[in-house]
Protein 1
Amino acid sequence: MKGGVAVRYFVLLILLCSLGFTFQAQTPPAKNVPIEVPVRIFGGNQFVETLRLGDFEVSEDGRPQKVEALYLIEKGQVVREEALPETNFRPQTARVFYLFFQMTEYFAKIEEAIDYLFKDVLQPGDSVTLITPLKPYSLSPQALKTKTRESLAKEMNSLLRKDIQKGAGEYRSLLNELKRLVRTIAGPGVARVQDPEAGDVDALSAEGTSSLEFMLTHYKEAVQKLEALRLVEPKKFVSFADLLRAGGGQKFVFFFYQREFRPEINGNILNQLMMANQDREDIRAGLAELFQFYNRDISFDLNKISRPFADCGANFNFIFIDNTAKYQYGVTMREQSEDVFRIFNQIIRVTGGMMDSSQNPGAGFKKAADNAGKYYLLYYTPTNAQKDGSFRTISVRVKDKDNSVSHRLGYFAR
């Protein structure tokens, strides 16, 4: 994908501390501290809950490790435990949920996700942080004791609807402006077609947009502004992962992302404009620059982004809302979600989370929440006690069983 994901919402999270959201800083780990590994085992679509301590094999950087303790966790509670003699682990099972919404329009099905969160997921002692396009909101465990689940769900749905509609206004405005520009550049026959969402493109003529050179410059500037709203900044991802690592308990992240499209000038129209302006080098240069802009590739190091998420121990889930673009004559709506998939699929892989892609974010959240709700916690003490800052890769398998195993990829030896 070209461009980057709109992660200004991650910037909002980084502001949590200044808004009163504090995290308990971890003390430096003691020498040879045990490593905690949440593990989910599935036989087909069913979670396998009958495994014992001796069924697991764990290795670190290819070296076998002794599994010292096992805890089966369901909805934040230990339902079964097994440990070697003289081990005394005390897992933190309190849960913190982070719900991010990167969306340009509100979907009614989101209410189903929020309702399910309060009705079937949250347990006493859990806390929730909601990140909308405008700002973060924190729901403390105390709120669950003082208000009904129904009233809290209704309040959160109202906040989310309002913030999405208001917070994505600049993004939608730029999209509409790009559509108007594209139709105007395409020619008078196309420009007369009106978009019920974008308004009348003829209003653009009042600004002197008969100049193709001016319109191309205006179009490029608008595209750059749109890209700036969804720019990937790896440092912001890493900062978010560091904040998660500093917090205690079990952390669950659900990222709701709406499929994005960028209005582009139809390729055939671009070619026609190139042919029609053979004697205008300035215009031909501007059109050629658009070709390059459309096909540019933004590269980034996925490991530098994803490994801190594995290290922080959070379970990351990606809810992809697979909406479709409306057809408009003369406008090519180019999907720009590939970079989002590259980044978040990698984060999912290294944290043991899951992705759901559909037009129903409510059903996607239910599936992800159910998947995250039950897991094993395994503990082992690394045979390599050196704290050299390197990334240690963890591998977990189940002996003599053909099951699907998901877990975090590893940790940084600090």
Note: Residues 8-170+227-266+291-412 form one domain.
Protein 2
Amino acid sequence: MWRAAAAIAILALAGCSSDSPATLNRVNTHELFNEAYRQISDYYIEPTTPERLGLAGLAKLSSLDSSITVERQGNQIVLQKSGTVLARFEAPASTDSWDWGGVTASTLDAARHASPRIAATSEDDLDKVVMDGAIATLDKFSRYASPNAAREQRAERNGFDGIGVTLEPDETQVRILTVLPDGPAERAGIKPDDRIVTIDGAVASTLTRDQVVMRLRGPAGTRVVISIERSGVPQPITLSVSRAHIVLPTVTVKLDGRIAIFRITSFNQETYEQLIEALAKARRELGAPPAGIVLDLRDNPGGLLDQSVKVASVFLRGGLVVSTVGRRRESRREYPAELNRAIDGVPLVVLVNGGSASASEIVASALQDRGRAVVVGTSSFGKGTVQTVLELLNDGELTVTWAKLVTPEGYVLHEHGVVPTLCTADLGDDDGSVARAIQQGSSTGTGLAARPRIALDEKGWTELRSSCPAQRVDRAVDLKLAERLLQDPALYARVLSAMPIEAARTAAAAPQ
């Protein structure tokens, strides 16, 4: 969601024709929108209805052809072109997803016959227009992904079978942007900036970017023959590459003395395993556990909830990581730390900024609330909602908000986010800025920061976040401050104790 994509989806548009426009597949379209309206109505965190979704979706047809309008008139849904009524349909009961799916399919069919612009729109694109209109009635984190986009989202979450490269977004040639370390492409000798000439004999420059990606991907263990051009090499190089299952790396580690710095860029299905491997690597290189750990979550937009719980569990002795509350019974859950205790007792600093959201906020708030880490940086984004991903009949996906996140202390993350213990907003990178941040954060005093977060009303939260505004900047001062804390155990302990801890939270943090 946050890197150079392996593919840019190219959606073909159907050309206009003098023949009658093709009728939509009524059964599939009917069933698709029935499924979408039903699942949104079932799962969305606030009550909604198929009627509201269907009317909003169909109203978006005017974005394709401004002469087309769809509106409710009494007990009828009316399709008009330039004020002339083209079709009328009986309005179903507001909660009847099946019949609203039927009205949607029938209206789309009639609109295709009436409008050349709509007739020229591919079925996937037309579905997306209507889905986007329906989703627009929900919150800003709910969304629809068409089949091509959904396949890329699944690949990012769960991995894919391929050769392990990303491609430069260049329309004139197929240039390799990055090569996954120790992936099939690297093992075969492919390098960044290589230009792909042919793929299994097909000339790459004649293919769309989506076709290139589909040819590079394939079942793990199968081979693809690639011809590449490389600067300084006079003739193309032909390589046979064995495909493998690829999960994008999300964790990196570097050492600064005996301090290990782990950066997590997002949370996919292997983030926890990658963190465990990175911890083991740091131990091997140091010959012992690190003297201190920095967990860098800056600009981490989130990802999978279960992975954030597992990552937080690495540093906790049991107890609560996060809980969720929503309209459905199954959305109301508590997520305790898993008792793996991969690393225990090592001083920990977490870095966040205005780009830290969702799963990264779960980790930062849990470690802060539980008194396990000093949080450094600026206020996080404040995206404290949980989305469920619903696969549709057309291979697209609905991502629907269904719960809100609650921290171990008991405050709602949404729109509040994580406010650091030591704030670096608007500071420079000099030693004086480090000293000012420590001075401001090492004593709670008697002001707003001294109050438990759960005790704050909305006015209090606004003031608290304003005192450390969210900024999407990776400042060197963040890391300098973290290392200063970890190099001085007495200072670290003093700053850690400055965060107000309620009795209930203290009990939750006790060894279990």
Note: Confidence is low (pLDDT under 50) at residues 1-23, 502-512.
Protein 3
Amino acid sequence: MSAAIVKELEHLLGRERCLTGPGQVLAYECDALTHFKSVPLAVLLPESTEEVQEIVRACVRHEVPFTPRGAGTGLSGGAVPAPGGVLIETSRMKRVLHVDVDNRIAIVEPGVVNAHLSRDVADHGLAYAPDPSSQIVCTLGGNVAENSGGPHCLKHGATAKHVLAMEVVLPDGDLVQLGSPAPGGAGLDLRGVVLGSEGTLGIVTKITCRLVPVPPCVETFLATFDEMEAACHAVARIVARGVIPAAMEALDDRTISAVEASVYRAGYPEDAAAVILVELDGHPAQVAAERQEVEEVFVETGALSVETARDPEHTQRLWKGRKGAFGAMGRLAPDLYVQDAVVPRSKLPEVLPEIGRICDELGLRLANVFHAGEGNLHPNISYDGRNEDEVARVVDAGRRIIELCLEAGGSLSGEHGVGLEKREFMGLLFSEDDLETMARVRTAFNPDELLNPGKVLPTSRACVEVKPVHRLPGAPT
């Protein structure tokens, strides 16, 4: 069976775009969450929608599971191939097909790198707003699959707000158009159903993106605090005053130390317990009024200092530290586990110390860097996966952190998705009826479950599909 489909796929794409060598496919065994690994039967590199359709139809004929993948920057195991399955890598579909300046839309292929779209439309005074930390490498197809966020989504919204329409290859190879560039499209919002479905309902091959004008005024501030609790209170008070910054990010002392010791050095004060990075954008008069409100809050909450970016280079350096924080963690230990739960902003002052207490009790190295304005936490636990005892403690901490955030009225994931990592916790957030409804929607799109099987929803079938390298929360046994 495997030899037959490989031969057919090689005939379709040629050997240079149908990778089957052991060294070739090994590079695709996992996404950025390296805890779950499965070597694909083949890695396919289509360059057109028609080739994606033919690959899918071949897989259906041979009953071989298939998984779509963008740049592999996901952090929930969502792009890990099923055993015996193939991986459809869409990064070669990277054309910006059309830019409509008057209507502020761009039509792109899924392999377009997030940051490249803003670069390509900058001369028109436009940009693409969602900006994941991995935006210099992550692709828009993967962003659609995960409904990716980013620091500037506090004000401007996540991917769902900026994708108007999609061309989607269904699990039987048929092609459908979902959504419309025009507002208020008639009928069911199937665009909204597929967007964020983590590659389980279809493979996106064309995306109509909403572009936004580059704001006429942008100001960036770095506020320093001697305790994280005060920084969290500042975040909540800023929003309570009616100010919605473009971005509002928090880093603790351990993150600051890691960043300042790395190539991402940003000039953050290394004696601070926490810093808040705030960006305001809009009309100059609006930014001036909001700046006054923000500065008053910083005074009220005891900020030690407030630094204003002097020029675009200074702004870029401040953001380099924030967006390079995960990379900076790589210097601390061989492995990194990044949580992604969300809590209400008002709960930050009580939830963060409890997360610290959990990790201290278990003897784990914790660093916090997170989207403070949205309450989207990113506890980073650095550890050595070769140490079985330490791995067990990471597993315990991950479970307890998720349960803590849900008890505080939060959610499982703000932007990284459920994938393999959190699927077994879905029952803590959703009822059996909820999960059954989700399963019925998936079945309507993907009746044979050949497309990205075993992801998102907890099922008995999923429990034997992918072997984790380390036991993490929600990992199959």
Note: The chain has five domains: 2-89, 96-213, 217-327, 332-407, 423-468.
Protein 4
Amino acid sequence: MDAPEKYKMSLNVDIQNVGPCRKHVRVTVPRKDLDHFRNDALSEVGGSAAVPGFRVGHVPKQLVERRFKKEISDQVRQRVLLTSLEQLADENSLDPINEPDFDIESLVLPDDGDFQYEFDVEVRPEFDLPNYTGLKIQRPTKEVSDADVAEYQGRFLEQYATPTAKDEPAAKGDLVTVDIEFLQGDTLLKKMSDLTVQLKPRLQFPDGEISGFDTLMAGATPGAVKTTDLTISSEAETIEKRGEKVTARFTVTAVKQRHTPELNKDFLDRLGMESEDDLQDQIRSMLHRQITFEQRQSTRKQVLDKITESATWELPEELVRKQVENALRREILEMQQAGFTTQQIRARENELRQKSISTTRQALKEHFVLDKIATKENIEVTPPDIESEIQMMALQRGENPRRVRARLQKSGVIENLEAQVRERKAVDFILKSAVYEDVPYEPKKEDDLEAVGIAICSTAATTDLTEADDTEE
């Protein structure tokens, strides 16, 4: 038996551009459509209404309307909105990113005349795809040497260094425990207490950086007070403080030196290694993963730079801000998988946060272009793709897949995983036809940077890297 033909409404729809990737939609529903849904609701409610003195299904229509006015009105409103929005989507190419921005409960159907409602909605940008076949790509390559392993082993062991009190003044590489006050004029913006940091050339916060920190603190002893100025990042979360100069006042409460653990049997047992050779094999494997990560990042960046050269369209600021945390979580997750240290990840997160708006705006443009390529090339993500992704992450972290899935769900990353895999597949599709030129890989030198995960002008905390720390214990 054929299904009954779906009711078609006589909508009057007016769609206007009201900003980047944003449209204002005004929908007018004629009286005859309202009456159609009202008659349907009356029939349904009247057919099952239990009213004393009347048999079910035989209650007068006027009494049903009076006794069940709210129920009927709610049902009509729900069906009018649902049907009109579905028809609106079918007949107009809005391609929304999010749900329409309006309060359903505040809408009231009129007793007479037509019904009108309106809303704003964020939509995908309209653009023509650039050429994405046969791109020329430089691929960084490097052989991992014994010297590379030895250098990284030193940094790896530093994570387990034990701080001990030092009677002499602070010198480069030492640790100082400080209370920090950030002031703008006489106004206290933030106080950080009992913070232990290493004396390195750069002290970095999510929204600012102090250069020459090791020189500033050299020779400090407990009780010393040091001051310096810095500029808040131009993309700090606190908009009104962007680009503002502030003063940092450090009060030293302790000076410590770091003792790197001896690489003996007890320490190797703690790491679950049988010998130093085993540790070096693990480090060599970790360095290979990091080079692979950097290769992927470099080739991906080149691809995305090329395919987004013509993406001059603007994106709404609110949409960009919503996506900042998603973009950060994705990169941090990938760095954890590649075996980077907590300090490396923290430094990268601070760097991203200081450029969060422009970085995320570019990432969104990349997403829209890759999504359109994936649609054109029929690239899809299947449930086995997601399961494979979770299994791989679990294997790399030495965890149960169920625990990985639960953590991703709790952090909200699981919601973006399908989009990430689809984008990666689109990039891989582009790279299949790319022409490669191998170039030397130059690793970043990060030994001059000490990263602190507390913002100067915001209460927002940086990403919890406890899971990364677990891999280092």
Note: The two ends are 66 Å apart (CA to CA).
